[in-house]
Design goal:
single chain, 275 residues, alpha+beta, Creatine Amidinohydrolase, five-stranded antiparallel β-sheet, four-stranded antiparallel β-sheet, globular
């Protein structure tokens, strides 16, 4: 089921998204050689709690009885997504690191009452979910890594520009492909998603074009809220699961980058919730 959010609900999402963006910006500003992943995790947990939110990823069910062990997804180099803050790892010069963060906000009855926010009826906390990520270099990185980060960031911007009423999901995908192909591989086994009432909702938001007549190539309508998140590899688009059974890595060991924003479809054009 695809949920459309009301204008008031989008306002709540936007407020939460701005808070999440500030949290991520603070975390990214601390990244340098020698920083430990648990340092970033501790920061994230403290800031989310102070903001009256709860982390969306911590203890998220990954299947087969596995629950994600941290609030941050910290994916380094060949890790595409779902790298974790634990076990503790040191960031080294030359690494590229993707920090992916999600939050439900606001979660206290006091905040909800004070701000007169609508309550999310699908969550026990009553807050709304936002999701975003960015990939940055640690210290001095290679020219290849710099180019990958630039291309991936631009592909997200191009995709967002097509998130307009009346367009279809393939318009977003085509814009991403135009920036990325044929130089890099677009991960095909992982996609963006609806977001807001839940961390993951319908529809799947593809970073590559699907059949134009596919029922999944839906028309975008006002009130939809989606997470657009191109995942781009230097080498092949193919991926595999790491030994921990939840981190996704490139099949050929090449570098991977990942950028994401939560975006609302409005009559006035795409609204970047997590700007």
């Amino acid at each position: 089921m695809i949920y459309k959010k009301s204008e008031d609900e989008i306002k709540v999402l936007h407020e939460g998204g701005k808070i999440l963006a500030r949290i991520l910006k603070t975390i990214l500003a601390t990244i340098r050689p020698g920083v430990m992943t648990m340092d970033l995790e501790t920061m994230a947990l403290a800031m989310i709690k102070e903001a009256d939110g709860v982390p969306a990823f911590l203890d998220y069910p990954m299947g087969d009885g596995i629950y994600f062990p941290s609030a941050l997804c910290i994916s380094i180099n060949e890790e595409v997504v779902h790298g974790s803050a634990v076990p503790n790892r040191e960031l080294k010069s030359g690494d590229i690191v993707d920090i992916d963060i999600g939050m439900e906000w606001p979660v206290s009855k006091e905040k909800q009452k004070k701000m007169a926010f609508p309550i999310n009826p699908h969550s026990q906390h009553g807050g709304y979910f936002t999701d975003m990520c960015a990939t940055v270099g640690v210290g001095k990185i290679s020219q290849e890594a710099k180019k990958l980060l630039n291309v991936t960031r631009r592909s997200l911007e191009a995709g967002i520009a097509q998130a307009k009423v009346g367009n279809r999901l393939n318009d977003i995908a085509a814009a991403i492909e135009k920036v990325v192909l044929p130089n890099y591989g677009i991960v095909r086994d992982l996609v963006g998603h609806g977001v807001g009432y839940f961390l993951h909702e319908e529809p799947d938001v593809f970073n590559y074009q699907i059949r134009p007549n596919s029922p999944e190539n839906i028309e975008l309508k006002a009130g939809m809220v989606i997470a657009i998140e191109p995942m781009i590899n230097v080498g092949t688009h193919r991926i595999k699961i790491a030994k921990n059974n939840y981190t996704i890595i490139t099949a050929d060991g090449s570098l991977s980058a990942h950028f994401e924003h939560t975006v609302a479809i409005t009559q006035q054009g795409p609204l970047i919730i997590t700007a």
